[in-house]
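User: Round two. Same drill as before: sequence, then structure, for each protein.

Assistant: Same drill it is. First protein:
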Amino acid sequence: MANLDNQCKNLKIKNYNSEDFDFIFNLQKNTQEKTYNYDFSKMNLKEISSFWLMNRHALSDEISEMFDALGGVEDGIGNAVWKPWKQDHKKALNMTVKDLSSNDFKELKFEIVDAFHFLINFAVSINMTGSEFYNMFISKNIENINRQKNNY
C-alpha cells in the first residue's frame, strides 16, 4: 500500500514545454502497439498487471546490466564494480565514470536508455502522455525540494 502521509493528489501541476517527452512516449507506445501488438485501450486491469509484471522483470534485468556496465564492459573492471569477492573490486574505490573508455561510457548510457524504455511502458499502458509525465515530474520535484526545506 502506498504511503498515505505523502499523497500528491492536491499537488498543483503546471504546464511546461514537454514536446520531446510526448515524442518519446508516443514512439514507445507505437512500438508496443505495432511491434508487439498490445492494445492498451482494450486491456483490463489484470492484463495491465501482467504487462507490468513483465516490464518490472525487464526493468530489473536492465538495471543489473547498468551495474555491470558501470564497471566498463570492454576496458574496465566489469561487474567487479559491485562484486566485492572479485579481485578487481578494490579498483572501483579509485575510479569514476571519467575513467571509463568512451565506448564503455556509451554502453553504460545505453543501458540506462534500455531501462527507461521499460519504465515508459508502465505509463503508456495507462495512456499517460509524455506531457503529463513531464509536468507531474517537475511538479513533484518542486514538492520534494519544498518538503526537505520544511523538515519532511
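Second protein:
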Amino acid sequence: MSNSRSGTGRRPLIVGIDGPAGAGKSTVARKLAAELGYLYVDTGAMYRALTLKALREGLDVRDPTEMERLASRTTIALHQERSSEGADVRVLLDGREVGREIRNPSVGAAVSYVSEHAGVRRIMVDKQRSLAESGGVVIEGRDICTRVVPNADVKVFLTAAFEERARRRFRELREKGYDVTLEAVEDEVRKRDEIDSTRAVDPLRPAPDSVIIDSTAMSVGEVVDEIMKLCRGKQECFTAR
C-alpha cells in the first residue's frame, strides 16, 4: 500500500488525529484523507482485527504474553479504496477481509484490553510508523501524536461530550444491523474511556502541541474544514521556507 500525495506539489504532511471512542475520528479522517489525496490509516481497525482473532481462538485478551505472541504471528494489512464517503480501508486479517466482523460489539468490548499490553503496542506501533514515515498520510487512533508519530506536522485531539459519543456509536452499530441498546453502548464507551485513559502504556491524552477540537455541536464537514485550515497553514509554512 503506497502513500499518495496531494496535487499541490507541496511537501506531503503527516496528519495525526487522536481521541476517545465515538468522537468521530474514523469518519473525519476518511474524508480528510480523500480531500488531501492522502493515505488513510485506521490504527483502531488494526487492534480490532487482532482482537477478533483472539476471540476466535478463545484466547484470554487480558493475558499480555498470549496477546504478544498472537500479535507476532498475525498479519494485518490495510488496503485503501475510494468511495463517495471518502477514503475507505479494507482490513485484511491473515489475508482475509474482516472489515465488518471487527465492528461487532463483542470486539468493541474487548479491544481495549488487547491494546493496553505493552508488547502488543510495540509490535503495532512499528507497523503503523512504517505506513506513516514518508508522509502523505492521515493516521488516527488513541496514541498517534504522543507515541506513533510524535513528529506529525498536524496534531489534532478530537473529542465530544460523553453522551454524544455514545449516541454516535449506538447509531453506527444499529445502522450496521447490530441489535444493541443505548445503555449497553454507554457502558462500553465508559469502560473503554477508563481503560484507555488509565493504562500504564501510552494512555489516551492530548499531545502538548495538539489542537483540541470538540465536535459535540459540529458536523463532520465542519470538523474536516477546521483540520484542513491547519493543514493549509502548515503547507504554506513549508512552502515559504
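Confidence is low (pLDDT under 50) at residues 1-8.

User: Perfect.
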